[in-house]
TrEMBL record:
Its cofactor is [4Fe-4S] cluster. Signal peptide: none annotated. This is 4Fe-4S single cluster domain-containing protein. It comes from Streptomyces millisiae. InterPro entries: Aldolase_TIM (IPR013785), Organic_radical-activating (IPR034457), rSAM (IPR007197), rSAM_sf (IPR058240). The keyword Iron-sulfur applies.
Amino acid sequence: MVDETPDPPGAAGAAARISGTHFPVTTLGPGRRLGVWFQGCPLACPGCMSRHTWDPAGGRAVGLPELLDEWRAALAAGADGLTVSGGEPLSQPVALSRLLAGAAALRRAAGAGGRPADILVYTGLTEAELAPEPGLREALRHADALISGRYVAAEPTDLVWRGSANQRLRPLTELGRQRYGPHLARTAAGPRVQVAWAPAGGVLLYGVPGRGELSALERRLRAAGVRLRGPSWRQ
Ligand code: SF4
């Protein structure tokens, strides 16, 4: 049954520009999660696999109530958490702040009798860049954990949920420490990319690929008759 908790103040009319959403995502944080990808990233990391999220005018504008409805549905389906990635979520600090505040309020209501769902945010900014920016830190107030730093192709890593060794996973709350503490130095044992069929046709890839994983995946898909015509990491 979907939670009927009203939207938090400020949600009505608020909008974010997003690249997409998906549930369940299993490769960006612990358990089964709702993924929300913000649209727009000015950081332009060489080798980024999400170049389709760079254009701030791309994607689509979505009202916060719509995103919170997806979060309600995910919670009702047993979601372990929300992962916000991009793009660069902190390029839209007001929308991010409102989304996280609304998501935190709803998960508290939904989690009253069950295990709490956590909130994980990815940013390409470093902690040093965030430190002098109170508005950006305020936008992360409801995040339980943060993965920060640019993707650096020359610094591959096997650490779970991180694309390069410089990226830092930091728990921010008690829930974050419980949920992410055991994973800070854990390396990925299996596939780090999840393949899902896109509603409009084709495939979508979710996750942080390990060394050579995208090329191997492309070969397997080709063998299965799926040809990737426009993978965004080749643009
Ligand atoms: S890896 Fe992340 S921070 Fe870097 S360009 Fe891509 S979307 Fe932006």
